[in-house]
Amino acid sequence: MEIAWQTPANPPERQDYIFRKGRRLVRPYYFEFISHVKNRWAGKTVVDFFAQEFKGRPYDYYVSAVQCGRIQVDGETVPVSYILRPSQKINHFLHRHEPPVMASDVPVLVEEPDVVTVRKPASVPVHPCGQYRKNTVVGILQAEHGLAPLFPVHRLDCLVSGLLILARNATKADLFRQQIEGGMVQKQYIAKVVGTFPEKELLVDISIYYNPREGRSTVEAGDSCQDTPTKGKTASTKFTRIGSNWTHIIVLCEPVTGQTHQIRVHLQYSGHPIANDMLYLSEYVDNRSDVGMSADRAAGKSLIPETNNTYVDDCEETCSKNFSIDPMCTHCPNLAPTGYEEHEEGLWLHCIRYAGPGWKYECPYPGWAFFS
Fold this sequence. Notes:
Blueprint: E1 5-6, E2 17-20, E3 23-26, E4 29-36, H1 46-53, H2 59-67, E5 71-73, E6 89-96, E7 101-102, E8 108-111, E9 115-120, H3 137-145, E10 151-152, E11 161-167, H4 170-181, E12 186-193, E13 202-205, E14 207-211, E15 216-220, E16 236-244, E17 249-255, H5 262-269, H6 278-281, H7 295-300, H8 316-320, E18 349-356, E19 359-362
Parallel strand pairs: 1-4, 11-18
Antiparallel strand pairs: 2-3, 3-7, 4-6, 5-6, 8-9, 9-11, 10-11, 12-17, 12-18, 13-16, 14-15, 16-17, 18-19
GO molecular function: pseudouridine synthase activity; RNA binding
Catalytic activity: a uridine in RNA = a pseudouridine in RNA
Keywords: Isomerase, RNA-binding
C-alpha cells in the first residue's frame, strides 16, 4: 500500500473535513510522531514504553508496529525486546484519527494586517495539542480562510467559546503577551450560573492550585500559622450580575489574573458554579436535570452559525469511502478514535472582550446569554 506521510509542513485543507450529525471530523491520515527518550523511559523495552505511555492502542498493535518498522529507534527498525537509552530518537508512523468537535464554523470578526480575531466555538482546541492537529482553531482557519501563520496570544480552554485574538507575526504576539503579563489588559467573560447571585459586585481573591493529573483546580486558602508553603497561585476575579430569570443568572466575569480554570473554580467557591459545568457543579446540585439542558445541547443552540457544508450520512460504509482504511489501524473503519462517540460539551462560559493600551476587541454574546 502506498502511504503519503504527513508532517507539520502539510497544511490542513478544506477537503480534510467531514461533517456528520453536528460534528466536524477529520479524514484519517498518516502522520510521523517524533520524540526523544526521557530518563524515566530509559531501561524499558520499546514495546513496554509505548504500551505504558500511550494506552489508546492495545499492546499487540505496538508489537506489530515495531516488527514492521512503523516504530523506529534512531531511524532503524529494532526488535520488540530492544531496550531504550536516554536521548534516543523514536519515530512512530501511524494512521491518525482525530477526535471530533462540534460542527460550528470559526467566524472571523476582525482581520487586520497584524491581528485576526475570531469567534471560537466551544469544544474546539485553539492550537495543535494531544490528538488534535487539524481539528483546531488554527487548523480550521488555515484550511477554510487561508490564514497562516497565526500566533494565539491568550488561552481559551477547549470547552470555552468567544473572542480569540491571534497575531499574524511573532513580534505582534510578543507585544500582546508582554501587555497581558504586565497586567495592562482587561478581560471580560460572561457565564450562566446557578444560585441567588448578590446584587453588588463580588470579588473573589483566593489562590488556585491546578492538579494536572485530575484535570481540575481547587481553591487554596493557605494557613499563615504553618510553615508549609502552599502550592496554589494567586488568583483574583471580579463578578457582576447582569441578568437573570427564574433558573439562572448571567454574570460578567473580569479575571485580574489568568490561572487555569480560574473563573470556573472561583464561581464554584462563591457558591454559584456555571450551570452546565459538570466538573465543578456536582457539589452544589444533586439533581442535574434542574440546571437546564446539557452543555453540548446548549452550545449547539448558540448564535454561532452552523457550517454550510453538507453532512455525510452516519454509517460505517459511507464513512469508509471517505478515506483509505489501514489494515493495522486499531480505529479503522471509524472516523473518530475509540472513546469519542459523542462530541465534547460546551460550557456556558464565553469571552466577550479584551482591551489594552490603545486597542479593544469584542465578540457578540452567545444565544444562551439571552432570556426569552
